[in-house]
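Subject: for your reference before the review

Hello V.,

The reviewers asked for a structural picture of the protein, and I figured it would be easier to keep everything in one thread rather than splitting it across files. Below is the amino acid sequence we used in the manuscript, unchanged from the supplementary table.
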Amino acid sequence: MVADMTAVGSRSSPLLAGAALTGLAAVTLSAGAFLLIGPTAGTSQCSPSTAASIALGPAGTGRTVGATEYGGAGDPSSGDVGSSGVNLMAEPDSYAELGGYTFATADAMGTLPYGTPLRITWRRHSVIAYKRDIGLGGGPVDGYPRVIDLWWELAGRLRIPYEHGEWSGPVRVA
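And here is what came back from the structure prediction:
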């Protein structure tokens, strides 16, 4: 059973206080189809080979939110290193929670702890991704609050067309 994320983004929500993490762990554990295989060494930003190491699963449920893509050879505003110092090329199953300059202030989904797994669904596909970055965010995306950035290889694995760091659209998170 996947927890409903209708309270995501609400600062007063107890969802992220323990029940959410328990629910996220349950989602991760119950989704046996989501086996993440370690990244491939020696990749470059022009070679999306590590994206294949992110296992696709069937569409999931959750709250619809606005998302954007970042990174890749066509995105001059983004490098390969996340705010935490992690090499995102080596950890392509990464997302950024938006809303602030630091991990303590990026609160668009309730200030998720570093490494929090989320099931992210776009159309008929979903993946498990981990918070390894943060960002400021921006205006709404298709009428939904923009709360998450998807690393370009993660977005590619979801079969979101690469638009040089400019894709935006709704996704579901749980």
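For the response letter, the relevant points are probably these. Strands lie at 57-58, 63-70, 94-98, 117-122, 125-135, 146-151, 168-173. The first strand starts at residue 57 and ends at 58.

Happy to draft the paragraph if you're swamped.

O.
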